Amino acid sequence: MAAAATPAATPVAAPADEQSFKVVTEQFADLRVLRYQVPGFEQLDPKQKELLYYLYEAALAGRDIIYDQNYRHNLRVRRTLEALWEANQQRMASSSNTQQVDQAQKLNVYAKRVWFSNGVHHHYSTRKFVPECSREYFAELVRGVDSKSLPLLPGESVDQFLAAITPVIFDPTLDAKRVNQEAGQDLVKTSANNFYQNLTQKEVEDYYAKKINKKDLRPISYGLNSRLVKDKSGKIVEQPWKVGGLYSPAITQIVYWLGKAADVAETPEQKLALQKLVKYYSSGDLKVWDDYNIAWVHDTKSRVDVVNGFIEVYGDPLGYRASYESVVSFKDLEATKRIKAIGDQAQWFENNSPIKPEHKKKNVVGITAKVITTVVESGDAAPATPIGINLPNATWIRKEHGSKSVQLGNIVEAYDQASAGGMLDEFAYSDEEKQRAKQYGSLAGKLHTDMHEVIGHASGQLNPGVGTTKETLKSYASAIEEGRADLVALYYLMDHKLIQLGVVPNLEVGKAEYDSYIRNGLMTQLSRLTLGETVEEAHMRNRQMVAKWAYEKGRKDNVVEKVQKDGKTYFRINDYDKLRNLFGQLLRETQRITSEGDYNGAKTLIETYGVKVDPAIHKEVLQRYQKLNIAPYAGFIQPRLVPVEREGKVVDVKLEYPSDFAQQMLEYGRKYSFLPNAN
């Protein structure tokens, strides 16, 4: 397949020169758009570049899938905005009517928010957002464009289309939450994602209770790659996402490019893994998915790597169904030395953990730890991106075959370069704390990510006969697991072992991360919530739970102190060693909950410490944060790979850095729209 021609409206790609590279491109709503560089790409050999290009195309081919998974109307909304974009830009540029320009600018921002969040629900809070322009302005634009450009359903008129799409876009109460985690509610019926149809939470849980064999030591990931629906006859059926099934047009494209990648694989192990991934996408067989993950874990010699599939289950409140994502990368050989030093000592960390002896792995196997240079991200990994990955998610595969733990090095570097000034000065209590953060904060953050992924997620084991966490801990599984991994990292960040390994110069690095974690968990992350909201996102719940539990349990000894200075609230750590001990106690408890499958224990911990927000502190944080004019969320424009062909063969690949977020989204919409408007 030939690459689409670059449209005239697309800005010329910026040069890769580090001195002239602009990381931050724009800010709107609560979002910042950044760019990242791909150092080392030019030094790769032509075959490695060709492999990366095929994996890049495979990644982007699945872009439509995440939109449809997030909400059944998302593709229609996105394509409507794409159809209106040019007309709206003309209104904004040429109109002398200030009210009309204002309306156009507001629709402009809405379109960018939809692109950023892969749909009409906020990428992080999952709450629905709506345009600030009027319905009348929107309708006027719709009626003014060629109806052929609109995502009309068969036989649908423009008026009928407007009647259907307007409430989807403008009514905040219609399908208000993509993922609802509020205790006491039916989490399936009140979540707007497209994973279930005509079902209740109880029906879904009963369906899998009958299906899953809790005695199976190697359970397959039931529900990972399908939509669960109740048909008109009342029968519950799974509709798998595969070639010939749901999302077939997009998955067929993914398979095509993965097949080309397999043909130029670096090693036999990599070729086998890619072939198994193709077989999985073609069959929808979850046992083949396990086979692929095992093969992928054993591919340790290839420099190029890829994550591609239905991976993380945060988008499903019950934790069964996974969102499409892809991360294409190659190993950063120099930066990997730090993370590898930790991975190589995984058994020591396990043996010396404060968790109960029966919960420790006797033989930690096959942790491949590396820092990667990201080339492109897609699906649930873009534009907002993880900074660390530990896969596969299946506990039994990690136990028997190991895992890959990575830090996205150039993504972390871009975040560091874009680091917004003012946060530290506003929320850090003392000059000592600020200086420590400036000197060690970057290394501390990287090490926390390293250990969270490498020895955090890979540590501990379930008791014999205990089901997977999504079965036992249910809607609290993700928050408990992320908290457990955070606690492993926090506990060891103040250990002299890190000095012995040569990854830190002293324990001031650990103190810098403790300062940052407490500050974020108890205060600054609240800037992401609207006043009156509770915490629902799993990572935010885990951070508040850990910080608040440690604060409350340490109050007797004044371990973490709430202080007032100049009319502002701060949290100051008075005893770092005692705080480390508290982190160890909570690690022991979260591992016990995980190992025993203690649902009530998980519920009590998260609901008591991770959900409720102090309204006075929340109001104060929002007021202080607003003055800084910093968007709390950030995501990325992706690099562009352009093949150089000779006689029908790829002989080289050029790397470009687009600089306009909207133009990239429009380009993707033209090139990678494979799914119908309704699926």
Automatic annotation (TrEMBL):
Keywords in alphabetical order: Hydrolase, Metal-binding
Family matches, as InterPro entries: Peptidase_M49 (IPR039461)
GO molecular function, one term: metal ion binding
Annotated PANTHER family: DIPEPTIDYL PEPTIDASE 3, DIPEPTIDYL PEPTIDASE III-RELATED
Protein's recorded name: Dihydrofolate reductase
Organism in which the protein naturally occurs: Solirubrum puertoriconensis
Keyword Metal-binding set for record: yes
Signal peptide (UniProt feature, chain positions): none
Upper taxonomic lineage: Bacteria, Pseudomonadati, Bacteroidota, Cytophagia, Cytophagales
UniProt-listed Gene3D superfamilies: 3.30.540.30
Pfam family membership, one: Peptidase_M49
